[in-house]
Structure formats: C-alpha cells, structure tokens
C-alpha cells in the first residue's frame, strides 16, 4: 500500500495537475514521521470518504479538473493517541478517476511535534492546499 501511495505521489499526481513533485515533500515528511493515516487506514480503503467523517477529520476534496476544494464534512471528535494532522490519500473511485483527499486534523496536541514544528507543518501544508486549489 505504501509503495502504491508513493508511486501516486511521485508520478501520477504531478501529471494530474499538482505544481511540482517538490510540493509534496512535506506530506512525504509526515509519512516518514509515522503520522500519515495511522488511523483506520484499511477502513478508509474500503469505504472511502465516509471513514474520514467517522474518525473526526476535516475532509477536503481537491478536484483537479475544476481546481476546486469541496468540503465533505467535519467532526470535532478526538483521535486520542493518534496525531494525524494532514494527509494525502489517493482513492480510486473507478478505473477512470482518482481523487485526492487532503485531510486536516483539527487539534495537533498528540502529534508528537513541538508547537513550532506543528505551526510550520500547518503553514507549509496550507500553502500546498492553496497551490492545488488555485487560490
């Protein structure tokens, strides 16, 4: 699964309209830190966006064809020991379509990063969201 995600991030995403591969370095950094989808990964693969809502994340879909961000829903539920902040999740809806999901955790208190590190990560990923959405 991780190899497949890496292939999507490095090869397919730039072809789908992301600015450059380097824009995704911060997301890859998070993955190496072990906080990219530590929660319900298998469940997300099975049922897609519904799982995001159930685990209390804010979900934004980036539609590359129209360069829009769509908010699917959010909850303020705590994730306990898990500190997922943002993540990129490529979910194949059909053989012809791949959607990119940007996920933001509302609270970062259990992420294992210092306050400055969390603010830096959020700032860089907010910048990535802006680039991808064309804002």
Structural account:
The protein is α+β, with helices and mostly antiparallel strands. It has one domain. Helices cover 41% and strands 21% of the residues. The chain is globular, with a radius of gyration of 14 Å.
Furnish the topology, listing elements before pairings.
Elements: H1 2-16, H2 25-33, H3 41-47, H4 49-54, E1 58-63, E2 68-73, E3 86-94, E4 97-104, H5 115-133
Antiparallel strand pairs: 1-2, 1-4, 3-4
Separation of the first and last Cα atoms: 31 Å
Largest sheet, if any? 4 strands, antiparallel
Sheet/helix structural class: alpha+beta
Q: Round the mean pLDDT to the nearest integer and report it.
A: 40
Task: Write down the secondary-structure element order.
Answer: HHHHEEEEH
* β-strand number: 4
- Percent range for helical residues? 40-55%
Could you say how many structural domains there are in total?
Answer: 1
Task: Tell me the Rg in angstroms.
Answer: 14 Å
Helix count equals 5
Looking at the chains present, what oligomeric state does this protein adopt? Answer: single chain
Beta-strand residue fraction: 15-25%
Which geometry do the CA atoms define? globular
């Amino acid at each position: 699964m991780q190899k497949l995600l890496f292939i999507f991030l490095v090869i397919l995403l730039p072809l789908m309209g992301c600015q450059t591969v380097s824009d995704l370095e911060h997301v890859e950094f998070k993955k190496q830190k072990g906080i990219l989808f530590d929660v319900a990964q298998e469940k997300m693969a099975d049922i897609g966006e519904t799982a995001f809502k159930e685990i209390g994340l804010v979900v934004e879909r980036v539609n590359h064809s129209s360069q829009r961000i769509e908010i699917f829903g959010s909850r303020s539920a705590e994730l306990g020991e898990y500190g997922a902040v943002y993540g990129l999740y490529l979910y194949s809806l059909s053989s012809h379509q791949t959607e990119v999901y940007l996920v933001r955790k509302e609270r970062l208190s259990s992420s294992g990063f210092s306050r400055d590190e969390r603010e830096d990560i959020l700032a860089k990923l907010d910048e990535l969201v802006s680039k991808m959405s064309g804002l």
